[in-house]
Amino acid sequence: MRRTGTTRRGALTAAGALAAGGLLTGCDGGARPAAERPGSARAVRTTPEQRLRTASVRTSAALLARYDEVAAAHPATAAGLAPLRIAVRQHTEALAEGAAPAPTSPAPTASASPSATTEAVRDPGDPRATPSGDARGALKELAAEARRACDAHTASLLEAEPELSRLLASVAAACGVHAYLLTELAKETPAS
User: Fold this and answer.
1) In sequence order, what are the residues at sequence separation of 6 or more whose Cβ sits closer than 8 angstroms to the Cβ of residue 81?
2) Rounded Cα distance, 123 and 128, in Å
3) Model's pTM, two decimal places?
4) C-alpha separations of 131 from 74, 137, 143, 145, 157 in Å
5) Three-state SS at 82
6) Whole-angstrom distance, CA of residue 44 vs CA of residue 48
7) Which residue numbers in the chain have pLDDT < 50?
8) Phi, psi for residue 19 in degrees, rounded to 5
């Protein structure tokens, strides 16, 4: 008759399986050097794709902030800008997936305005920093900004991996269409 219960062979097999499971999960008991711990400056290594995504996110975020600035300065244009703004926000979110993690810094306050993020990207002395006084001029400036974003995304295509290049190509194409639509919207907008 066969013996039932725990045998030495069964106990050793179970202990070996647990040890192998611990190795496979990568548990190291927190014994990493200080330079490799999360939050350490050297722990964050970005890949070329992450840097490219981060730059593209910055470009799209600046364009999104510009949409917000024009809509706030010229409320009559807000309805026409709304669908385009939503698309730019979705582009920014899609590009942000897999972007380099943001450096650890104090969280922005709730009172931060959309233009506060733009100031980090755009020089405040730049004449494009504030929307034009009339709605038609502001829309033309926004169309030019969309063209610049299109050019930036297109230039990034050469350095991107295939999956990211497809995303950048579609975002660049959308920016080109936005530039055209904004130009047409500017033509339809009465001069003020």
Assistant:
1) 67, 70, 71, 142, 185
2) 9
3) 0.64
4) 9, 8, 12, 11, 30
5) helix
6) 13
7) 23, 26-29, 34-36, 40, 104-125, 127
8) -65, -45
Q: Tell me, what amino acid is at 89?
A: R
Report residue 52: phi and psi, to 5°: -65, -45
What token pair was written down for 46? 């970005």
Residue 31 DSSP label: -
DSSP calls for 97-165: TTPPPPPP-PPPPTT--HHHHHHHHS-TTSGGGS--SSHHHHHHHHHHHHHHHHHHHHHHTTTS-HHHH
Predicted local distance difference test score (pLDDT) of residue 45: 78
Residue 2 has what DSSP assignment?
-
